[in-house]
Amino acid sequence: MATSTKPRFVEATYKPPEDVKVEVVEGVVKVVGKLGAAEENLSHTGAEITLQDGVIHVKLPGSSRRSEALLGTVVSKIKNLVKGVTEGYTYRLKIVSSHFPITVKVEGGQVIIENFLGERYRRRAKIVGDGTKVTVKGDDVIVTGINKEHVGQTAANIEQACKIKRKDPRKFLDGIYIYQKEMGIAK
After folding, report:
1. CB atoms within 10 A of CB 146
2. Could you give the CA distance from residue 184 to residue 144 in angstroms, rounded to a whole number?
3. Which tens digit of pLDDT belongs to each residue from 114-171?
4. How is residue 161 annotated by DSSP?
5. Fewer CB within 10 Å, N side or C side of the chain?
6. Residue 1 has pLDDT above 60, yes or no
7. Phi and psi of 166, rounded to 5°?
8. pLDDT digit string (tens) for 69-128?
9. What are the pLDDT digits (tens) for 37-59?
10. Are 103 and 53 contacting, i.e. CB atoms less than 8 angstroms apart?
11. What is the Cα Rg of the chain in Å?
């Protein structure tokens, strides 16, 4: 009676574009493209990441659904790095104020929100990462960068800084809200 055994690992491959330079050193993936350089430390995942003939090979121990899910996550993170250095990421937020005019400005590594619901103190949101840029144009706040996680976290920090407490959210719609996520660096 022959029994079939499951493989003891799951694996996937990804071929980045020709104009992108990829380097893998002990689980740290470094990617260089036309917009700059980005790196991600994936050594904590336990994945064996190798580069052979311009193709990235990712191999994970185990054959469970959890291993397959982690494999997909690792490959997606590498793809996001490549997309970031070739195209970039842009998140657009809208400033909504019906009661008091909100003033938004960028100072150093923070976004300063003044006069939110008539408050006297300033609300602050941290800008994550070195390559993340925040610009304010009228009622729009534009967050751009090459690292998807940094751009998304910065946009989330700005949105969370305007969270309303102890007021009816159906009446007080004031705040700064994400309304568009796109590929490419906005001009």
Report:
1. 25
2. 8
3. 999 888 999 999 999 888 999 999 999 999 999 999 999 999 999 999 998 888 878 8
4. H
5. N
6. no
7. 60, 30
8. 999 999 999 999 999 999 999 999 999 998 789 999 999 999 999 999 888 999 999 999
9. 999 999 999 999 999 999 999 99
10. no
11. 21
Please check the confidence at residue 187 and state whether its pLDDT lies above 80: no
Given a contact cutoff of 8 angstroms between Cβ atoms, the answer to whether 175 and 159 are in contact is yes
User: Would the pLDDT of 5 be above 80?
Assistant: no
Q: Where are the domains of the chain?
A: 9-86, 89-183
Residue 100 near residue 150, CB atoms below 8 Å: no
Q: What is the CATH number of domain 89-183?
A: 3.90.930.12
Other C-beta atoms within 10 Å of 30: how many? 14
Q: How far is CA 58 from CA 41, 46, 141, 170, in A?
A: 14, 10, 37, 48
**Which CATH class for the 9-86 domain?**
alpha beta
Chain centroid to CA 59: how far? 24
In sequence order, what are the beta bridge partners of 14?
Answer: 56
CA 187 – CA 125 distance, rounded (Å): 23
And the tokens for 61?
A: 């121990």
Residues 6+ apart with CB under 8 A from 13: 55, 56, 57, 58
Per-residue pLDDT, 66: 92
